[in-house]
Amino acid sequence: MKKLVVAMVAAFALMLAAPAGAQAQDRPGGFGIGLGHGTAVSGISGKIHTGDIALQGVIGNWWGGWGSRWHRHHRHRSGLGVSIDILASMPTIHDADVVQIAWNVGGGGAIGTGPNWFRMRAQFVAGLEFIFPDVPLDLVLEWRPSVQLAPADFWLNFSGGGAHIRFYIE
C-alpha cells in the first residue's frame, strides 16, 4: 500500500512539474476504437479526448488476472467485464514527423460478472503513448496497479499492465 501511495504522489508531482508552456500532444481527433486490455478486461477499446482529459474504456472478457488468487481458484470462469478510466494528458516527450511519444496518468475502475460471481477493482493508470498522426493511430502501453474492492477478499496488484491499439475516426 505504501508503494502505491508513493507512486501516486510521484505521478501527481510530475504533473505539476510539467512546464506551463509545454506542448500538449497532437492527438488524433474524434473517437478512437480498437483492441485493448484494461484492468482484468480484454476486448474492444475506446477513447475520446476532451482537451487535456480523456475517457478510456474496454468492454469484453473478464479474465481475472494471471497469478491472482481469484484466477488460481477459478480458472474455468470467465465473464463480461468493463474497465473505465479518466486520464490526464501530459506533455509530449518526443515529437517527430512519423511518431510522437507522450504519456498520461489517471485512475478508474473495473467490474466483472459471470455465473455466480462478481468482481470490482479500482486502478491507477500511467501510460506511454505512441501516436502516429498521419495514420491516425495510437499504440498505448500502461502500468495499471489495482486493488480489488469486491468481494471482500481485498488484495493489491502492483504488477498489472495494459495495452491498446486504436484507430481514430473524426
Task: Set out the fold topology.
Layout: H1 2-17, E1 31-38, E2 41-50, E3 53-62, H2 69-73, E4 79-89, E5 94-95, E6 100-114, E7 117-132, E8 137-143, E9 146-150, E10 155-157, E11 161-169
What does this protein look like?
The protein has 170 residues and is mainly beta. Helices cover 12% and strands 56% of the residues. The chain is built from 2 helices and 11 strands. Strand 2 and strand 3 (53-62) form a beta hairpin. It is elongated and about 50 Å long.
The largest sheet has its strands arranged as 1-2-3-4-6-7-8-11
Q: CATH topology, what is it called?
A: Porin
In the CATH hierarchy, what is the architecture at level 2?
Answer: Beta Barrel
Name the helicity range.
10-25%
How many strands appear in the DSSP assignment?
11
In short:
With 170 residues, this protein is mainly beta. It has helices at 2-17, 69-73, and strands at residues 31-38, 41-50, 53-62, 79-89, 94-95, 100-114, 117-132, 137-143, 146-150, 155-157, 161-169.
